[in-house]
Amino acid sequence: MIQVEHIEKKYAKVNALQNISLHVNKGEIFGIIGPDGSGKTTLFRILSTVLLADKGKACINGWDVVKDYRIIRNHIGYMPGRFSLYQDLSVEENLQFFASIFKTSIESNYYLIKDIYQQLEPFKKRRAGALSGGMKQKLALCCALIHKPDLLFLDEPTTGVDPVSRKELWDMLKRLKSEGVTILVSTSYMDEAARCDRIALMMKGKFLIADTPSNIVNQYNEKLWAVSSDAMAKLLIDLKNYPFIKNYYAFGDLHHITMQANSKSDIELQHDLHEYLEKLKHQELFISNIKASIEDCFMALTGGSSDTLHTTKNYE
Amino acid sequence: MNSTAYNYQNDISIRTEGLTKRFGNFTAVDNITFHVKKGEIFGFLGANGAGKTTAIKMLCGLSKPTSGIAMVAGYDVATQAEHIKKNIGYMSQKFALYDDLKVWENMRLYAGIYGMKEKIIAYRINEILMQLGFENEKNTFVKTLPIGWKQKLAFSISIIHQPEIVFLDEPTGGVDPAARRQFWELIYATAEKGITVFVTTHYMDEAEYCNRICMLVDGKIVALDSPKKLKDTFSAQNIDKVFRLLARNTNRT
Questions:
Q1: Could you give the ipTM of this predicted complex?
Q2: Given an 8 Å threshold on Cβ–Cβ distance, is A160 in contact with B149?
């Protein structure tokens, strides 16, 4: 469905995309996961035929994104990261407009958007610009879907959207998948990775890894520990100063750490850390072996401190 | 009510009583009462459209309450908005930095807007550059900085005038996981110095880092407590579950 071979794109001196290759199968939800500035939007623009790559080749349904851009545009739905509907048109007018430019009507493909549009219907006379963030995203999704595309390109559909609306959007994508729609979706929320069939973790124009979420998690080859106590802020500092610490991160209500094993068993490692923290007056101590999440994998792959000036200098 | 008549306590940064904002017959913020202690990290959570932005606008002195009282840094939002603006900092996800100005020029600009004295400005610029490890980037144009650095700079500028309170409206959207954590270290350090941090976020793991969390549903406060107590009260594993439990009962979009 989507085939990308060795795509490169440079803006002035910044390598926005470096040797990106990608295959997405029909009916698959493929997630591109990475922070702002990692190149996600550039990739989406090239695949949506609105930007030319410097090198490489990309095909959608076998059509070339450069030569066959006109056909491709009839078969894809593109939801850009930036809200790009008409702010001064009402909810209903926006949808009608997008239906009419694709020579279709709201009625003919209503079944595709029904679940989300029903939530918008009480506000169909409201100007799009006056909707809340979550509602804007839902309307944008409806507009991208109204011509019944085979493929859906969603650039950060959940950014700035609250957890409940995010879940609804993902439920919606799952239903579209069952209709046979192929979905390429980007996000900077690591916890959304599990909702994709396959994902690529992206940073600074490169794919760090591309696989199923479970394979990526299984490839995490270090022993990861979760630690908590009654004083979490102090705990993070104490963990930082632990002689056998390798990495430490705050992770919601737990801290995640890796340690130098020094041929010790897990039980010994746990015991030693427990003793160290107890001496520092931590109470309600909890130390346990845990499975890595996608966010742990991302930080391990980028070496944690990914966002340094030093690497930006390399761009210049 | 006269603001001086209102009992303002020294260890309280924000206090509201029945704060309400109506637009026509729509009640965006509905009779909310809470207080935030000095140096506290206070998480303000709610679904899109719950009324967070409207409430923050009132607390920053940008929008007048329809009824109720809000005292921020000792000033009444209804009558002393200009005093409030001098005593608060504000940062949103759309960092208000000028790309075509250098790092130090951005700091200088905002310090000037806040009417700081030249000597203090020079001191604060150096202090911030050191804190952030930005000494070598003083003359770098902001547009060439990576997003995580811009974010730290935007935050430091929002407190360049050492306000009593800083409002952070979804400050961490879109940055990588490591940068997100570094940013929270900066928030901790700021609260440690006694600056009150009022923060909204859609990352529920970040809600766990707040001292207390206030949940807004349809303009009303439905829960207000420490993350731990909220989890206990709702028998939920994490704040994400608490959020879903409470925000599901919305009647609004």
A1: 0.74
A2: no
